[in-house]
Amino acid sequence: MSHTEIEECIRAHGFDEFAWMDGRDVRVAQWVRFKCRMMCEGYGVSAMCPPNMPSVEECREFFGEYRRIALLHLELDCGGAPDEDVLGPVDEALLALEREAFLRGYEKAMVLPMTVCYRCRSCSGSVASCREKAASRPNPEALGVDVFATARALGFPIEVLDDVDRKQNRYAMLLLE
Ligand code: SF4
């Protein structure tokens, strides 16, 4: 699959705004994991969140194995609605994109969604007992990615919002090869 074809594939799945980066340029930082561990109510709840995730150093090594990663940007008007209401269709599009890339010969293809996994009413809380392993993925933050720095380095907008009614700049990743 040519570079042009994979870009057409990304757009066909509804992602018109994206930029390529080398996996070694993904900003992986301890502060992300520390805030997750000490300040997030979801810590220890989702199977796809820390402490069920690899160490920050392992995450950095993981991203470093990729030469082409697409950072996918959406500007969303969530209006205070739960992530699963707004991002459900986006997650399905991401999984379809991952599958198409894989079937077209990108054996390392993997997507990281824009939100925490919400697929079950009550998460199993461990990767081993996850009920939908074929569809659940960690988001970039769960793997220690400083999404703010990573997006800004590519020229994308992102800022801390003081009102849930404001439009949100959300990011997913397609790890390709
Ligand atoms: S699919 Fe269900 S069990 Fe697995 S991470 Fe998501 S919510 Fe948890």
Give a description of the structure.
The chain has 177 residues and is of the alpha+beta class. It has one domain. The chain has helices at 3-12, 30-39, 56-64, 83-103, 147-153; strands at residues 17-21, 69-76, 110-112, 168-175. The longest helix is centred in the middle third of the chain and has 21 residues, at 83-103. The N and C termini lie close together (12 Å). Residues 46-48, 117, 119-120, 123-124, 130-132, 136 line the site of iron/sulfur cluster. Iron/sulfur cluster binds at residues 46-48, 117, 119-120, 123-124, 130-132, 136.
Short summary:
The protein is of the alpha+beta class. The chain is built from five helices and four strands, in the order αβααβαβαβ.
- How many distinct folded domains? 1
The distinct bound ligands, ions and cofactors come out as:
iron/sulfur cluster
Note the main sheet. Answer: 4 strands, antiparallel
The amount of helix comes to 25-40%
Low-confidence spans: pLDDT under 50, at least 5 residues? none
Count, helices: 5
Shape: globular
In whole angstroms, the N-to-C terminal distance is 12 Å
| Beta-strand content estimate | 5-15%
Please tally the β strands and state the result: 4
Structural class by sheet pairing and helices: alpha+beta
Q: What is the topology, as strand order, of the major beta sheet?
A: 1-2-4-3
Q: SSE order in H/E notation?
A: HEHHEHEHE
**Average pLDDT:** 95
Radius of gyration: 16 Å
